[in-house]
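Review form for a predicted model. The reviewer records the input and the model, then writes brief findings.
Reviewer: anonymous (R2)
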Amino acid sequence: MKKKTLSPFQNGTYLAFDTSTEFGSVCVLRNRVILDSVCFSGRGRHSADLLSKIEEVISRQGLVISDIEGILVGEGPGSFTGVRVAAATAKGLCHSLEIPLWAISSLRAGAMSMEEEGMTKQSVTKCILFDARGNRVYAASYRAMSSGGLETIMAPHSTTIEGILSHCEFPTVFAGDGAQRHSDQIREAGFEVTDSLTGMPSAKSLCLAVKEAENDFRINDISAWEPQYLRVSSAERLRKEMDD
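Model under review:
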């Protein structure tokens, strides 16, 4: 028998996680309150760590995996392996437990983390950059709305740091590990960069993102859903080059 389908912010127990960047996180939400969370780091280790961290968080609350009534997942972009691990784990849990899935851009979750911390004024655009190696970044920009939530100014995409700087307008503040890597170039262009590693996604910020517009992120066909890779993996690029 399928479980009752609940909204993430109605009474119920939900699991959220994101492993799109070097910093992974997991949290459990019940009755609109975050009960527990854990953060972990180590690019390339998320495939080994995610399930153990999920077990750690739910067991600390005296729960078992069958108590979970819905999944919130960061859908990337970011580390190809990290995004794939999160997506596969989310799909597997949703299918085995017969529960719903909500998928949120990890870049949007990064912007929501800045909103939670009150780091920018409402009129300031937040441009979130994730490092994609070399001079490339994953980028998206958002602005707070007076009615609450975020307006998408620039949708998630893969670009160069030069490309994103040529399309941004003042006032814009840059955040994320990509902004930190290219901070000198961003500041030379006249833009502000956050002083610390802010603008990174977390399981908690996924919950905030879904709260603002939960129907926008509900996945109707979980089997067909794919995360936001935006760029193919290194292995796929090499295979394509060999085929050509």
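Findings: Strands lie at 13-18, 23-30, 33-41, 71-74, 101-104, 125-131, 136-144, 150-160, 172-175, 192-193.
Further findings: Residues 232-244 have pLDDT under 50 and may be disordered.
Recommendation: see findings above.
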